[in-house]
């Protein structure tokens, strides 16, 4: 095909660091490198609350403007680059005007005209004229928008002349996940250097984050991991961390200005009406110098400008925080903090359970830092899912193991260096038939051979005696006992560790697996001399019986 080799798609996006599906990347544009995740503040081609060059001073290297509105404002042949028209020397992305079609139902231009215009004004990143699905329950309409957008993509490929511009291929389908699948598969086959997920603006305005999670992860299932993904209109700092964790690399939003015009003050945890503010919980250039009363007394235009500058600072700060979290391997922790900003955001986290294997595929195997475990929602995190999955699928007991001691882990880490564990090992040192398996929140069973594997000893757990967590751990332990089929299972520990229900569950599982189960010690100090003596005597009695039998 004629356009096959024209885009520099293999060199466009470099992934530097990863966590969950999120990544820190470098997007190579003809006007410089853009570090992702990145939010393009959307500016009007002509009317600015905050000038594009002031936006740059706040820390934004790139802005987005609307090609359709620019064409209206500057004429069909402005004779200048968009950078000059905006008085901005950073990277400029242009949207085609498709959103205006969605909102106002049609614009008086053709795709060829809008592509040619974006080429004339030398956009660095530009979008073809797609047909957004929007928030609709009309299936026929959604099908039509997907079909038309794919046709437009093919037409665009034939019509584009400037291949140093990073052209964006939009994915449509809206709430219809089968259509998002179809659209993603087809768009991924085409040679657009950037893909974008369309239609989320209205979905986000309605706080439909559950649906958004499904849309993004359906799209990510079908596009190549090497592709940068733009989320059209991804607008509020409270959802950036979630969207980045799902694999969105780029966002664009005019919300800093829209919220400012409506007297809204953004924070990473939500929006506050300016009239409700008594204090300014921020230390940006505006909030450091002024107090609430100063801003309240400003004439309207000056107040809107102050709020817009603050809002931009909050967005910029949140993106830096997200990048630092990816760097530390703590993006999940940040997503969970932000999820508590709003119930709709929080409930969307539950949707991730369906995509655990996708999250695991993308996540790094080891990290610079350990992980935190707070409650049952953290079972979604890939590190825990991965350990448990591999334990059940891949772990086999050492060849001669016949007796498994189930015991909570020692109190000091690394476990192998713990004095109590050393004492216990002395008791069983000659016994090749004895296998030690720790049992703990959140992992459940941890064979001693794996106890130093990441992230076991690097996990910090909140001991809250959460019932759901306890049930989950018990479930994983019974599954493990079922799978390994050890001849004898010895429980060693107190009633804080082995609840009556747990003992009954294990006994039942052992019966089904035709294993014997016994309790060697049931008291407060499972590492005491007395407990060790009892363990020794239990093991010897098993040995004696075994020897008698043989
Ligand atoms: Zn501020």
Overview of this structure, please?
This protein is of the alpha/beta class and 550 residues long. It folds into two domains: 9-355, Alpha-Beta Barrel (TIM Barrel), CATH 3.20.20; 371-549, 3-Layer(aba) Sandwich (Rossmann fold), CATH 3.40.50. 46% of the residues lie in helices and 17% in strands. It has 23 helices and 20 strands. It is elongated. The structure holds zinc ion (ZN). Residues 282, 284, 286-287, 310, 313 line the site of zinc ion (ZN). Zinc ion (ZN) binds at residues 282, 284, 286-287, 310, 313.
What is the number of helical segments per DSSP (H or I, 4+ residues)? 23
- Structure summary, number of beta strands: 20
**Radius of gyration over all CA atoms, rounded:** 29 Å
CATH homologous superfamily designation of the largest domain: Queuine tRNA-ribosyltransferase-like
Q: Strand percentage, roughly?
A: 15-25%
The CATH topology annotation of the largest domain reads as TIM Barrel
CATH class of the largest domain: Alpha Beta
Q: Give the helix level as a range of percent.
A: 40-55%
What is the typical, i.e. mean, pLDDT? 90
Structure classification: alpha/beta
Largest sheet: 8 strands, parallel
- Give the distance, in angstroms, between the N- and C-terminal Cα atoms: 74 Å
How would you summarize the topology of this molecule?
Elements: H1 9-12, E1 13-19, E2 22-29, E3 32-36, E4 38-41, H2 52-58, E5 62-66, H3 67-74, H4 82-86, E6 91-95, H5 98-104, H6 111-120, E7 125-127, H7 139-159, E8 166-171, H8 177-189, E9 194-197, H9 200-205, H10 209-222, E10 229-231, H11 237-245, E11 250-253, H12 255-261, E12 264-267, E13 270-273, H13 285-289, H14 292-297, H15 300-328, H16 331-339, H17 343-351, H18 356-362, E14 371-373, H19 382-394, E15 403-407, H20 419-428, E16 434-440, E17 444-447, E18 459-461, H21 467-484, E19 488-492, H22 500-512, E20 516-521, H23 529-549
Parallel strand pairs: 4-11, 5-6, 6-7, 7-8, 8-9, 9-10, 10-11, 14-18, 15-16, 15-19, 19-20
Antiparallel strand pairs: 1-2, 2-3, 12-13, 16-17
Helix pairs in contact: 7-8, 8-10, 10-17, 11-15, 11-16, 12-15, 15-16, 18-19, 20-23, 21-22
The chain binds zinc ion.
């Amino acid at each position: 095909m004629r356009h096959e080799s024209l885009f520099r798609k293999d060199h466009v996006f470099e992934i530097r660091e990863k966590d969950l599906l999120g990544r820190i990347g470098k997007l190579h544009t003809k006007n410089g490198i853009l570090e992702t995740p990145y939010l393009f503040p959307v500016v009007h081609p002509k009317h600015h609350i905050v000038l594009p060059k002031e936006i740059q001073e706040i820390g934004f290297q790139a802005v987005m403007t609307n090609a359709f509105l620019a064409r209206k404002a500057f004429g069909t042949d402005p004779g200048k680059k968009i950078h000059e028209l905006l008085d901005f020397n950073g990277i400029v992305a242009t949207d085609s005007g498709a959103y205006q079609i969605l909102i106002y139902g049609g614009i008086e231009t053709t795709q060829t005209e809008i592509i040619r215009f974006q080429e004339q004004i030398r956009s660095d990143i530009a979008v073809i004229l797609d047909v957004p699905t929007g928030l609709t329950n009309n299936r026929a309409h959604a099908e039509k928008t997907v079909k038309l957008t794919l046709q437009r993509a093919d037409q665009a490929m034939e019509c584009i002349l400037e291949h140093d511009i990073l052209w964006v291929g939009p994915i449509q389908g809206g709430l219809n996940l089968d259509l998002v699948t179809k659209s993603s598969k087809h768009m991924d086959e085409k040679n657009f250097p950037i893909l974008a997920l369309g239609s989320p603006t209205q979905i986000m305005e309605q706080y439909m984050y559950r649906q958004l999670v499904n849309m993004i992860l359906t799209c990510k299932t079908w596009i190549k991991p090497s592709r940068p993904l733009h989320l059209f209109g991804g607008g509020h700092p409270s959802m950036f961390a979630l969207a980045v964790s799902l694999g969105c690399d780029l966002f664009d939003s005019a919300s800093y200005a829209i919220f400012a015009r409506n007297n809204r003050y953004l924070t990473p945890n939500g929006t506050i009406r300016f009239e409700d503010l008594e204090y300014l919980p921020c230390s940006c250039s505006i909030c450091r110098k002024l107090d609430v009363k100063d801003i309240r007394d400003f004439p309207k235009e000056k107040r809107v400008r102050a709020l817009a500058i603050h809002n931009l600072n909050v967005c910029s700060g949140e993106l830096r925080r997200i990048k630092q979290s990816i760097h530390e391997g703590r993006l999940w922790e940040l997503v969970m903090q932000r999820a508590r900003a709003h119930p709709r955001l929080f409930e969307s986290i539950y949707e991730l359970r369906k995509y655990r294997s996708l999250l695991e595929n993308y996540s790094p195997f080891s990290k610079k830092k350990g992980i935190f475990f707070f409650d049952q929602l953290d079972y979604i995190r890939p590190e825990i899912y991965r350990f448990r999955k591999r334990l059940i699928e891949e772990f086999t007991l050492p060849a001669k193991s016949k007796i498994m001691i189930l015991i909570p882990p020692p109190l000091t880490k690394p476990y192998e260096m713990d004095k109590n564990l050393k004492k216990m090992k002395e008791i069983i040192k000659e016994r090749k038939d004895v296998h030690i398996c720790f049992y703990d929140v959140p992992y459940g069973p941890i064979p001693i051979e794996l106890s130093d594997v990441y992230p076991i000893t690097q996990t910090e757990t909140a001991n809250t005696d959460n019932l759901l967590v306890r049930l989950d751990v018990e479930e994983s332990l019974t599954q493990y006992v079922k799978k390994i089929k050890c001849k004898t299972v010895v429980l060693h520990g107190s009633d804080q560790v082995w609840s009556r229900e747990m003992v009954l569950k294990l006994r039942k599982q052992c019966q089904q697996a035709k294993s014997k189960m016994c309790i060697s010690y049931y008291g407060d100090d499972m590492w005491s001399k007395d407990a060790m003596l009892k363990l020794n005597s239990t093991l010897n009695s098993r040995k004696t019986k075994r020897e008698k039998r043989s």
